[in-house]
């Protein structure tokens, strides 16, 4: 007998599910429909797990979102899920788990330690000018980012990435990127900060980890993904999802994918998200 197909929604947060005021109010109809159909929602973001756990406290539906943090490098499952056995989700990586805010959080604690060791050594050897989250006091970070005390604590609770502020020349930056590549690390340019992370992680890896946990937990079902995102760092996830939705970005423009079969949302952020998910549910006859 053919396995029953079950969908998982995997979404970026900023400028995708969330609008510019960090609200998903415009997506309430679609989120309610997903909850009614018991379709899991995964937040896949460059935010830390602590930042997303705080946001998830306000989630109004019974099924809490599953969290993928730091661009695919950390993972958290709601503890009220019927089974939190996540063995094998991280392949050969050393995995550490901790229960925090009602979530079982999984990460490889060695990753960030390795990044910090390497970039500090490279900085010293080459006299590069940059500072990272690990160098800033809470007050400095609060001034730089405009975040309040609790939000600074959550932003600093990192396991797998180090955001840095580059203060040197463009030529030095290019040399730095080449040097860290030799150690297995890569850079991801965000708005204010450049994130240093392990080359093995990206948002598609995070998505695949969640799917492998579901496939193991529910072996009689075939799990398929619909992914939604607006930025270049979402592209890998969108290319590999079973159904991809690009959300246009008002400030930065609209990304294009290599695949041709993706859906382009008709509006920005949470409004476009709402429309696309409802449209997807209609298309797949999953809508009630
Ligand atoms: Mg985004």
Protein topology:
Blueprint: E1 4-11, H1 28-36, E2 41-44, H2 49-56, E3 66-69, E4 74-78, E5 96-100, E6 103-107, H3 109-126, E7 130-132, H4 138-145, H5 149-156, E8 161-166, H6 170-181, E9 185-189, E10 194-198, H7 203-217, E11 221-229, H8 235-240, E12 243-246, E13 263-264, H9 269-283
Parallel strand pairs: 1-2, 1-11, 2-3, 11-12, 12-13
Antiparallel strand pairs: 3-4, 4-6, 5-6, 7-8, 8-10, 9-10
Helix pairs in contact: 1-9, 2-5
Explain the overall architecture.
The chain has 288 residues and is of the alpha/beta class. The chain has two domains: 186 residues, HAD superfamily/HAD-like (Rossmann fold, 3-Layer(aba) Sandwich), CATH 3.40.50.1000; 90 residues, Putative mannosyl-3-phosphoglycerate phosphatase, domain 2 (Threonyl-tRNA Synthetase, Chain A, domain 2, 2-Layer Sandwich), CATH 3.30.980. It is 34% helix and 23% strand. The chain contains nine helices and 13 strands. The chain has a nine-stranded mixed β-sheet, sandwiched between helices. The protein has a four-stranded antiparallel β-sheet with strand order 7-8-10-9, with helices on one face. A hairpin with a 2-residue loop joins strand 5 and strand 6. Helix 1 runs parallel beside helix 9. The longest helix has 18 residues. The radius of gyration is 19 Å and the shape is globular. The site of magnesium ion has 6 residues, from loops. Magnesium ion (MG) binds next to loops.
């Amino acid at each position: 007998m053919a396995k029953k197909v079950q969908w998982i929604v995997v979404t970026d947060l900023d400028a995708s599910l969330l609008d510019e005021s960090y609200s998903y109010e415009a997506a309430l109809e679609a989120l309610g429909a997903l909850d009614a159909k018991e379709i899991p929602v995964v937040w896949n973001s460059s935010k830390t797990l602590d930042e997303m756990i705080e946001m998830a406290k306000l989630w109004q539906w019974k099924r809490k979102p599953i969290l993928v943090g730091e661009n695919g490098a950390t993972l958290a499952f709601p503890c009220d899920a019927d089974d939190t056995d996540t063995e094998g989700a991280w392949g050969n990586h050393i995995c550490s788990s901790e229960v925090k805010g009602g979530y079982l959080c999984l990460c490889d604690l060695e990753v960030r330690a390795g990044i910090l060791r390497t970039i500090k050594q490279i900085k010293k050897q080459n006299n590069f000018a940059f500072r990272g989250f690990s160098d800033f006091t809470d007050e400095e970070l609060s001034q730089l980012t405009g975040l309040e005390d609790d939000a600074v604590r959550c932003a600093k609770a990192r396991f797998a990435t180090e955001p840095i502020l580059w203060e040197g020349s463009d030529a030095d930056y290019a040399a730095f990127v080449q040097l860290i590549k030799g150690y297995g690390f890569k850079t991801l340019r965000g708005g204010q900060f450049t994130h240093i992370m392990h080359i093995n992680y990206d948002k598609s890896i995070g998505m695949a980890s969640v799917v492998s946990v579901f496939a193991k937990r529910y072996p009689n079902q075939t799990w398929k993904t619909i992914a939604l995102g607006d930025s270049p760092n979402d592209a890998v996830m969108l290319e590999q999802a079973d159904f991809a939705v690009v959300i246009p970005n008002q400030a930065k423009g609209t990304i294009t994918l290599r695949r041709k079969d993706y859906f382009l949302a008709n509006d920005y952020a949470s409004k476009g998200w709402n429309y696309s998910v409802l449209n997807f549910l209609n298309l797949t006859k999953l809508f009630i």
